[in-house]
Amino acid sequence: MEKIREDPLEFLESMYRTYGPVTFHETERDRVYSVFDPELVSQVMMSGESRFTKQATPDDFMLTPLLGCGLLTSHGETWERQRSITQPMFARKRVEGFLPMMHQEAVNLCSTWAQAARDGHRVRVDHDLTAMALRIVARAMLGADLSGVGHGFGKAVDAVNAHLSHGDPRDTPDTDEVIEDAKGYPRGAAILNSIVAMLIEARKLELSDLEPDERDRGGTTGLQHESTNELLSSLLSYRDPVSGMGVADDEIHSQVLTMIMAGHETTAKALTWTLFLLDQNREVLDRVRSECIEILGGRPPGPDLLASLKWTRSAIQEAMRLYPPIWVISRRAMTEQRVGGFDIEPGSLVCVSPWILHHDPKSWPSPNNFNPARFLEDDATRDRHAYLPFGLGPRQCIGRGFALMEAVVTLSTIVQALDLKVCEDHQVIPQALVTLRPKFGLFMDPHELTTTDKC
Question: What is the reported pTM?
Answer without folding.
Answer: 0.91
